[in-house]
Design a protein that fits this description.
heterodimer, A: mainly alpha, two-stranded antiparallel ribbon, 43 helices, 1% strand, B: 34% strand
């Protein structure tokens, strides 16, 4: 029964406890709040008059503004649940105090301000609790869970409201209690919520902590400034603020329309009006409940958060237009009796949109938008929106109201600019306009939400907290000023930053500063950056002069060789005499660069002499480092006649010499490498990645290969440069190697990375049939992923005696992850995403943090591919904690039970065909019978089980 | 010790436990097995560290000189490791390590580790992750 109910409400088994507790908190609180709202409004209007309503609204929001500042300060220091508990406790104390005052002053009407105080105080706490409770709920669920559970939890509000409304009607009409005597009900409901919070804090653990581990020392005002900077910098928050302004103005004006204009004219009597409010609360809350239960979650899940956020302003526009149309076209004060039913219907519709639809649609959608900003920013941003933007908008709304209808609140006396008749259609017209503005502001929020959730999936390895303080500190300073400041700094990191700016932007006006810095500084890093910068600037006498001057005075051989390397780029200036002097330099690096600089210069004639010098040095050195250096120089000569000189060094036992010889050989034979293709292909099998990279680059000059397998295998390499070089080569020959690539996509031996990289090359060229086949592979991978999770659960209780137990767990986990990555690869391409999406989502899903998992699932659900993503989502949502749980998920996803169990466990392990797993199983056998049986083990398994000295042969020639 | 046993031991060491089995396999190729008798001093306080020791069997006493006397700080046993910082820098040892009975170790030298991390950056990233998580743990304490 419970399972069916949870299924109907889209709640997973593991979520129901949290959902139930938070639902009860809202229900109990809402019960009391519905009493206080009806009583507060009725008592205020009847005791102080409806002209006080705008002023009261302003006072409430000013109070909220101040309260929010303090609230923002504490959200970073205290846990969300503790703050909520404090609000409930404070509300309880406040109600007790007000109830006492009301009882004491019941006889006379001297202290009418108590009704104002109650109204202001109640709404103050009510707003703060409403602001905060969403963050508390969100912190106990992941981004995806909260999308499903938030609407169910929030049904507590209408149910509580309906129950409260019904109870109030009975108490007023059956027991004839005066509204003034029922204030304390709110206090009791807050106490009830408080005890539920205690239960939550002992039984549930938050998934996303909204308060920071590292305590903030900022004051309340500073917190607001920080939030303001964040809002300005965040597209989502900026448009949320604009949307909120539009919403609040519309909401307040609409509220005035039905509370101060329509209802008093229909229900002049206070008890009659309170009864109406209570009846309204009862029915409206039931309607809210149904919308919240059966509509909200479905809308949010199927439309997405961004689109759902458009609904409320749209409804507001419709109702305000209806009111405007009615009052402008038909209504006149003399027709009140005839039009009562239409007017009442419109007022109820307006109130329902303003109040209940706000709770059923706007609040959930708005709370979910916060998923797109870091949890440590929730508190301050909510406080800013509700504490600054909200009250500011209320003040604007109040001013508009006072301007239109006037007020007589003691200290402010103003006769409105319009008559009552005019007010009744001007107000809805303004609401209509701001509702349209609200729709316009909701559109960019939609896009910003999707971008925000994606960016929350950390690309960085170690997480990163938004540091908005450091952003844009330069303000309006010009670039020139910034560079000048940095270059004059004593901190060499600042100097390097300035040099990099000059280099990248090629700012020639700084040539003298850079040149002088080069001549003056002793710091190698600065010298290096100065040289690179001078070389990058447009050719002029100045930069050449500075480089030559530096060559004369600098003695450091590394710097000298760097200068020579850069000078060799300037072919049109003759500085050969200066360079020739360095041929006698004791440093081999300087000698080599001087040789190359001269050899490459068009005006230098005795090139053969240079070549002979290099060969002589190469022949006479015994140092591997120097040999490698001279081989490099030899290669740079690019004279094929010297290729024989490099060949003997290809067999060297020193890896650096072999690499240098190989690179030199390629350089010397540049353009004539086709006959040497075999050598290049052999180099691809080398353990040296530099060698492979050099070979791949050389292969680009050759004719297409007959067999592309060695290149395709390199797509799975762990070194990115190697992968990119292989891809580049394949891309150049895509028309020829495409069949090989496609064959490899569907091969069982292709690694996840290989498949991903191949798809990046050929996905757009796949036929529909091939794409379908790819989807089937992903489907099988997902099935294997679920099966492996089942196997992991079985393994937890198996072979615990064996030393291999933990290792087997880890291997199984890795194999399962690989299957999941295969699924994500296909989702990435089907939904037209990129490597960044794949990396972020896969890291998020494989992260141990549930918050990260939730964010990844949310990004996945917005990606556009529904079939596979939906299944992945279901798997992670269900979080099968035992074999039965995994089996249930398997049945849900694939309509059949899991085919792994305790009896076929070992057979399943063997079927995975994983060398380390097989070695573990052999080892377990040894643990049982005391000896290894390796008759049927392959070479890799044997290597893991037999004590050998591993030699890595690096020679390939 | 066969390669699989080395992998099993390395997998239990927190420093390597976050690495993939493939990476641990690579590390096992540079880990050598060394056995010492009771009383053998692995390193002395003040020595320059260049090796990581993983206790495969036996016990190791960690001693520190205080007022001219060797004060016993801790005893390490199977799967504990000592000198992990030696894999990243060449600073001096902060205490003395001595075998308390016959001991077997897996030993990894810094040069080999550097070479491996250079060739397989994923291994270096794995270490950085472990060190960062330790640092976070220390900050939160």
């Amino acid at each position: 029964m419970l399972a069916r109910l949870l299924n109907l409400l889209s709640i997973k088994q593991n979520e129901w406890e949290g959902v139930l507790y938070f639902f009860l908190v809202l229900l109990v609180f809402s019960f009391g709040a519905s009493f206080a709202r009806s009583i507060g409004m009725a008592l205020l209007i009847s005791n102080l008059g409806n002209d006080k309503l705008p002023i009261m609204m302003i006072v409430v929001d000013l109070m909220v503004m101040l309260g929010s500042m303090v609230y923002a300060h504490y959200t970073k220091k205290v846990s969300g649940i503790a703050i909520l508990a404090f609000f409930f406790l404070a509300t309880t104390l406040f109600t007790v105090f007000i109830q006492l005052l009301m009882v004491i002053t019941e006889q006379g009407h001297i202290f009418n301000w108590i009704y104002g105080l109650f109204f202001v105080g109640f709404f103050f706490f009510y707003i703060l609790i409403s602001i905060h409770v969403g963050s508390v709920i969100a912190s106990y669920f992941t981004a995806v869970q909260v999308k499903r559970v938030t609407s169910v939890i929030h049904t507590g509000l209408p149910i509580g409201g309906a129950l409260g409304g019904s109870a109030l009607v009975v108490l007023l009409n059956v027991f004839h209690l005066a509204p003034e005597h029922l204030v304390l009900v709110l206090g009791f409901s807050c106490l009830g919520s408080l005890s539920l919070l205690r239960l939550i804090s002992t039984r549930l653990i938050p998934v996303r902590a909204a308060h920071s581990d590292l305590k903030s020392n900022k004051g309340p005002l500073k917190e607001m400034v920080v939030a303001f900077k964040y809002v300005i910098g965040s597209k989502l928050m900026l448009f949320m603020s604009l949307g909120l302004i539009a919403f609040v103005i519309g909401n307040k004006l609409l509220e005035y329309q039905y509370q101060a204009i329509i209802y008093p004219s229909i229900f002049p009597d206070i008890t009659q009006r309170t009864t109406f409010f209570a009846t309204y609360e009862m029915f409206a809350n039931i309607a809210w409940l149904f919308i919240q239960l059966f509509l909200t979650a479905r809308i949010v899940v199927s439309w997405g958060v961004g689109a759902s956020n458009l609904l409320h302003p749209a409804l507001s526009a419709i109702v305000s237009f209806a009111l405007f149309f009615y009052f402008y076209s038909w209504y006149s004060p003399n027709q009140v009796n005839e039009d009562t039913m239409i007017m009442l219907g419109l007022a109820i519709f307006a109130q329902f949109v303003n109040q209940e639809m706000r709770g059923a649609l706007r609040t959930p959608a708005n709370n979910l938008l916060f998923n797109a900003i870091p949890p440590n920013q929730w508190g301050t941003n909510k406080a800013f929106l509700n504490g600054i933007v909200f009250p500011m908008s209320t003040v604007i709304a109040g001013i508009i109201l006072i301007f239109i209808s006037g007020t007589n609140s003691g200290f402010i006396q103003y006769t409105g600019s319009f008559s009552d008749g005019q007010t009744s259609y001007i107000l809805p017209f303004i609401v209509f306009i701001v509702s349209i503005l609200g729709i316009v502001a909701a559109l960019p929020q939609w896009a910003a939400y999707n971008e925000g959730v994606f960016s929350l999936l950390n690309r960085d390895l170690f997480g990163r907290h938004a540091d908005i303080n450091s952003a844009n500190k330069t303000g309006s300073n010009s670039l020139r000023k910034v560079i000048e400041e940095k270059i004059a700094s004593t901190d060499h990191y600042n100097i390097i930053a300035a040099l990099e700016m000059i280099r990248v932007l090629r700012l020639n006006q700084f040539v003298n500063q850079v040149g002088n810095l080069l001549l003056k500084t002793k710091k190698f890093e600065v010298q290096e950056h100065c040289i690179n910068t001078l070389a990058a600037l447009p050719l002029s006498n100045s930069n050449i002069t500075y480089l030559i001057e530096a060559m004369r005075i600098i003695v450091d051989s590394t710097v000298l060789s760097l200068i020579l390397k850069k000078l060799s780029q300037f072919k049109s200036v003759n500085f050969n005499r200066e360079v020739e002097k360095l041929l006698a330099h004791p440093s081999p690096e300087v000698f080599v660069e001087a040789c190359l600089c001269l050899h490459g210069h068009p005006q230098y004639r005795p090139k053969q002499a240079i070549e002979k010098k290099i060969i002589a040095k190469l022949e006479h050195t015994h140092s591997p480092e120097k040999t490698a250096l001279y081989l490099y120089a030899l290669g740079e000569l690019r004279q094929s006649r010297y290729s024989d000189v490099a060949i003997p060094h290809l067999k060297s036992t020193k890896p650096n010499v072999r690499l240098a010889a190989f690179k030199a050989y390629i350089r010397l034979l540049e353009g004539r490498l086709e006959p040497h293709k075999e050598l290049l292909l052999r180099a691809l099998k080398s353990s040296d990645k530099e060698m492979k990279i050099a070979a791949l680059r050389a292969l680009k000059e050759c004719h297409p290969l007959d067999d592309w397998t060695p290149i395709i295998r390199l797509l799975g390499a762990r070194d990115r440069t190697l992968v990119n070089e292989s891809k580049e080569l394949l891309r150049l020959n895509l028309n020829i190697c495409k069949p090989f690539l496609i064959e490899n996509i569907f091969s069982n031996t292709a690694s996840v990375q290989e498949r991903f990289e191949i798809l990046s090359l050929v996905y757009s060229r796949l036929s529909d049939a091939q794409r379908d086949r790819l989807q089937r592979i992903a489907h099988n991978s997902l099935r294997n992923f679920v099966r492996l999770n089942g196997l992991i659960k079985i393994h937890q209780n198996k072979l615990r005696f064996s030393k291999t137990h933990e290792l087997i767990s880890k291997v199984l986990q890795e194999v399962a992850e690989n299957h999941l990555l295969n699924v994500l690869t296909v989702i990435t391409y089907v939904s037209d995403q990129n490597l960044e999406f794949f990396q972020r989502v896969s890291r998020g899903l494989l992260s141990p943090s549930r918050a990260n998992q939730g964010n990844a699932l949310e990004v996945l659900s917005n990606a556009g591919e529904k079939r596979l993503s939906g299944r992945v989502l279901k798997f992670f949502d269900e979080r099968g904690i035992d074999l039965q749980g995994i089996n249930r998920i398997h049945i849900t996803l694939f309509n059949k039970p899991l085919d792994v169990n305790e009896n076929n466990y070992e057979k399943c392990l063997l079927a995975l065909n994983h060398d380390m797993l097989r070695a573990c199983l052999h080892y377990i056998q040894k643990e049982k019978i005391g000896r290894l049986k390796l008759a049927r083990a392959n070479r890799h398994v044997r290597e893991l089980l037999i004590e050998t000295t591993v030699h890595h042969s690096r020679s390939f020639y | 010790m066969i390669p699989l046993e080395k992998i099993i031991v390395l997998n239990k060491v927190p420093l390597f436990s976050m690495l993939k089995t493939e990476d641990i396999h690579m590390i096992s190729t540079i880990a050598s097995e060394e056995a010492y008798e009771d009383g053998h001093v692995l390193f002395k306080e003040g020595d320059v560290g260049d090796k990581l020791f993983i206790v495969v069997s036996g016990k190791v006493m960690i001693l520190k000189e205080q007022s001219g006397e060797q004060k016993h700080l801790a005893t390490l046993k199977e799967n504990d490791f000592l000198g992990e910082l030696a894999l990243f820098d060449a600073e001096t040892r902060t205490a003395t390590a001595m075998c308390d009975g016959p001991c077997t170790f897996l030993v990894i030298e810094r040069n080999d580790m550097e070479q491996l991390a250079h060739e397989y950056p994923a291994i270096a990233f794995g270490f950085i992750k472990v060190l960062i998580s330790r640092m976070r743990g220390m900050i939160n304490k």
